[in-house]
């Protein structure tokens, strides 16, 4: 049954006011609309309205300046903020000033109505106090639908200590996201410590994480602090956690379960207070099936899964990213450059196997090597042709292009069994294989339908409740990406 309430809408766009009025009235809500912030404030101050929907940029006042007054006067009044300025900082400011939800324009009416109904049915706690200092930097770049969902999820995670598991291809910006979680979260006054599991010798990882006592092993001539101790009160970023050896995984699990650890060679337990953010470019479920990653550790660190989309799935962000990297180059003494519209189109069609890192390297090279102010499409084409790596391994190149799913699975199983030599894989292969196919299938359907569960359920031919259950069980991160 629809939750009924009085909705106050402030937006200087008459068309948006009309659409919202009609949509919300149709489901039983009483609606009042205004094109300015002053009228909205007068209604709120008079005690009117059960929920506010407001655009950020109003003719007479910015909604972010008004939100603290609203939250002070009526702390339990939910405020939904809309904005066409779809940046990471917009989502962060919405969260910091106490907005119930942030919606980038253009928005989905069905989603907005669901948010309104949920807000009216929930008891609201007092919003967090806004931060007074201004934020100048822009840690994440992009206005695509895929990045909007990332921003909104990050904004919700800022004021929590929940463990976040970031999954994404190399070069997508996993450490940038981890730093944003720290620098805009409530642990920002503490240290941010990053450790790359793939860059440390396996026999030194435990010492790096937990520290060691003098004489704990050959060469340990003095006591050394570990990353957990260095990150006390802050955030510990475990990059490429899929490369962590099993022994270290066992110790890490114990720390997460008990909140304490011992140094290598030590006996006294040390209490720890850190937020864990982990990242990987590997499929941890596959590693679990191969016996290379602990399943219980996976569920400990996968509290909030966050999938970063590859650049090819958000090609509309390339223009903003290029502008950003050219600006960075200017700050470092390089000449100002721009890329021709035709060149930008070529860049948007390129698959970017190295993702944002590859794009940054190309932009810096263009700024340094070419004297002309505008980089032509011919230059871009030549650079991209030289940049493009071979994307197939020798064994993959021997496979036909029209390989069926069954043939691909058969090829995979041949290599999988061969990896165990004369031994057999662990028991339970049937269920593991079904799970491995199910996850990418559900993810692909959600991506293709831009996060619309009704369309995805219809596409898959399953009940919507069944799809929701699968999303929850498989840990599929839903985001509304534009189709590549």
UniProtKB/TrEMBL annotation:
Source domain of life: Bacteria
Modified residues (4-aspartylphosphate): 55
Keywords, comma-separated and alphabetical: Activator, ATP-binding, Cytoplasm, DNA-binding, Nitrogen fixation, Nucleotide-binding, Phosphoprotein, Repressor, Transcription, Transcription regulation, Two-component regulatory system
Pfam family of the protein (one): AAA_lid_14
Localization terms from the record: Cytoplasm
Domain Response regulatory: 6-120
Protein name as annotated: DNA-binding transcriptional regulator NtrC
Source organism (scientific name): Mesorhizobium liriopis
Gene encoding the protein: ntrC
């Amino acid at each position: 049954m629809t939750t009924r309430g009085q909705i106050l809408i402030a937006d200087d766009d008459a068309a948006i006011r009309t659409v919202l009025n009609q949509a919300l009235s149709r489901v039983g809500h009483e609606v009042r609309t205004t094109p300015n912030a002053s009228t909205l404030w007068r209604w709120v101050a008079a005690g009117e309205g059960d929920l506010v929907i407001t655009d950020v940029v109003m003719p007479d006042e910015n909604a972010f300046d008004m939100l603290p007054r609203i939250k002070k006067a009526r702390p339990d009044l939910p405020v939904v903020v809309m904005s066409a300025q779809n940046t990471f900082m917009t989502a962060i400011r919405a969260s910091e000033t106490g907005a119930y939800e942030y919606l980038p324009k253009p928005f989905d009416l069905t989603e907005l109505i669901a948010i309104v109904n949920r807000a009216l049915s929930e008891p609201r706690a007092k919003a967090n106090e806004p931060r007074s200092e201004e934020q100048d930097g822009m840690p994440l770049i992009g206005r695509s639908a895929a990045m909007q969902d990332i921003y909104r999820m990050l904004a919700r995670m800022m004021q929590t200590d929940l463990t976040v598991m970031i999954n994404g291809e190399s070069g997508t910006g996993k450490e940038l996201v981890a730093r944003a979680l720290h620098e805009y979260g409530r642990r920002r006054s503490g240290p941010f410590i990053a450790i790359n599991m793939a860059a440390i010798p396996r026999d030194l990882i435990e010492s790096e994480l937990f520290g060691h006592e003098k004489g704990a092993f050959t060469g340990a001539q003095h006591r050394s602090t570990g990353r957990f101790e260095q990150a006390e009160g802050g955030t510990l970023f475990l990059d490429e956690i899929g490369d962590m050896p099993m022994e270290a995984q066992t110790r890490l699990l114990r720390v997460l379960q008990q909140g304490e650890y011992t140094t290598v060679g030590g006996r006294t337990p040390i209490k720890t207070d850190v937020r864990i953010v982990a990242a990987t470019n590997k499929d941890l479920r596959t590693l679990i099936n191969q016996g290379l990653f602990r399943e219980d550790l996976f569920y400990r660190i996968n509290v909030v899964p966050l999938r970063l989309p590859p650049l090819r799935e958000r090609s509309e962000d390339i223009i903003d990213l290029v502008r950003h990297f050219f600006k960075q180059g200017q700050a470092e003494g390089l000449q100002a450059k721009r890329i021709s519209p035709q060149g930008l189109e070529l860049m948007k069609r390129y698959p970017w196997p190295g993702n944002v890192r590859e794009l940054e390297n190309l932009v810096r090279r263009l700024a340094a090597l070419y004297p002309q102010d505008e980089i032509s499409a011919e230059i871009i084409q030549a650079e991209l042709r030289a940049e493009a790596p071979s994307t197939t391994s020798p064994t993959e190149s021997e496979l036909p292009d029209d390989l069926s799913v069954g043939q691909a699975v058969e090829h995979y199983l041949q290599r999988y069994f061969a990896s165990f030599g004369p031994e057999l894989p662990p028991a339970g292969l049937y269920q593991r294989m079904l799970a491995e196919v199910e996850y990418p299938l559900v993810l692909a359907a959600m991506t293709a339908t831009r996060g619309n569960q009704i369309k995805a359920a219809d596409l898959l031919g399953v009940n919507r409740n069944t799809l929701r259950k699968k999303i929850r069980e498989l840990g599929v991160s839903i985001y509304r990406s534009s189709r590549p």
